[in-house]
Design goal:
single chain, 159 residues, 0% strand, 68% helix
Length: 159
């Protein structure tokens, strides 16, 4: 029995465009990784913000993300469509909160975030299975971002 293909986003719809990371989530292979790569490009100019401004932008990304992810998933009729990558963007930006400067830290943050996002150790996997809607789509990636940020900060403190 063949699985039905996933519905495609309407990229002319601003909510779908945002949810799918301006097309990064439309990648046929590893859309979450493509979304995280997009997040690196968003992080680079944000890394020059003050901590307070960075936190403000991050909070905006999270709040808007809950709505964007919820609306896009309802429009498409698929909870947590794999192409929805706004949550990866938010999770990576959280990972990089107060990260040390330099490409090596961006690469470490990228690797750590992807590890936790894919592996989904407790409570990430538990949240992913039990919390519905836009909050559910966002929450597991935000917790993955917290885990990745904690290890990144620990590593930075040891160097």
């Amino acid at each position: 029995m063949q699985d039905r293909p996933l519905p495609r986003p309407a990229m002319g719809n601003i909510v779908h465009l945002l949810a799918f990371g301006f097309g990064a989530g439309c990648s046929p292979k590893a859309p979450g990784t493509m979304g995280t790569l997009l997040a690196v490009g968003i992080y680079l100019p944000m890394s020059h913000l003050s901590l307070a401004a960075y936190v403000g932008v991050l909070l905006l990304v999270v709040v808007v993300g809950v709505w964007v992810c919820d609306t896009a998933s309802r429009d498409l009729g698929v909870h947590d469509h794999p192409g929805i990558v706004w949550d990866e963007i938010a999770g990576f930006l959280l990972t990089m909160l107060a990260a040390p400067p330099g490409w090596q830290w961006i690469l470490v943050g990228f690797a750590l975030f992807r590890l936790f996002d894919i592996w989904k150790p407790w409570p990430i996997g538990w949240l992913d299975r039990r919390v519905a809607g836009g909050l559910g789509i966002m929450l597991d990636d935000l917790v993955a971002g917290v885990f990745a940020a904690a290890i990144l900060q620990l590593m930075a403190g040891l160097v």
